[in-house]
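Look at one such:
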Amino acid sequence: MEATPQHPLAVARLAAGQTMDAFVSGIHDAAARRGLRSGTDEARVRKWQRGVTPSEESQIYIAEALGWSPDIVRADDWPNWLPNGLITLGPRSSVPALREALRTAMERRTFLTISGAAVTALAADWATGSPDALTRTINDGKPIGEDLVTYLENSTTHLADLPTEQRQHTPALLDAHLATVTDLLEHGRYTPGIALRLHTLAASLSQTIAWHRFDQGHHTHASQHWIAGLHNAHAASDHNLGAGLLGDLAYQAAWQGDHTTAARILEHALTRAQNPAARSLLQLRLARTLAARHGPSERNAILRALAAAEQHLNDASTDRPAWCAWMSEADLAVDSGQTLLDLGDTRRAHQLISEGEQMLPGARDKTRGVFLTYRAASYLDQKEPEPAAAAAAEALLLARRIGAPRCVKLVDDLLPRFQPYSHASGVPEFLHLAAA
């Protein structure tokens, strides 16, 4: 039996998706690259996980076996230098998860990745676990009043609600808010009611920051913040918010091409999501990732998910969680269209994408930019480069204006598809714009 995964070494190994055998082999390989041999075996690793400190040489091998640079090793600070990666859900896991997210961002530990298996296991724990009720008053530290919490809640909402063009200037403010809330949770004295609000605020802040990091292409930082948010939503017993955070992790997995992980996470998220708007968005994402994974071979499951998304959206009222308050018929139409493209239903897909773009509210510029890239791709599918170039150029100009690197990347990914049409009307101008 393996040692408890609460030890940082075990947590780091599991986060890397490594079995004990694979980890030991990695240590041997690290030694062999130096012309040396390591006597490390499973028994020795278990001793390290029970508190025995490895030699400095072994710590360097450990770092390399887990895919990290040996430069991060601080032999006199074992095991604290280990990037924890994934912290398991528990009654006191919310603050450590926040600290790990903040530390990962501060130290720019972009080399740390969390395996799809580890995130799926976390989702399964969330789906079946029972959070501890927040029934006690914290007796240590300075008292925290409602006025301070209300200010943090209101200012966080204001920052999150700014237009996309202005939100690109707010990451440092959001980081400072999250650090403050983390300190209050760890060191303050507060009632159960204040505790509930602080955990909810920490989850919401983590989610907002994660999307900022994701849009900038910082996927490690994004996943750590989504995971920290999940821990705090779990502490607050907010199943809809927890489901939303899992839905975001699934979206990230799908964006990176891991549709199997995305589908599994979404299935766990749907077990506890209750709000119809939340369920609609999760079902829509499930349809998208199933279609991208297997296309027509899962047609029945995909169409069931699309039908469920539509029905849940019809049932949704204005009482929605903040993270899916924007979910609308426009989103349903465009993402349904993208799904149908993977199923080969091209005509209906293009119709839905066009309808969805027309319905989109004017305030949602970033989403409009994404939709424009979808429209450009659909025109390319139809071998119509002129309107494709016009849509892609509009998306690129919009993305640059509002500071949306993820949308810029979507446009960049289309560039190779324009090369066969380099003499078509509008295409040279678009390619010149993209190169500028």
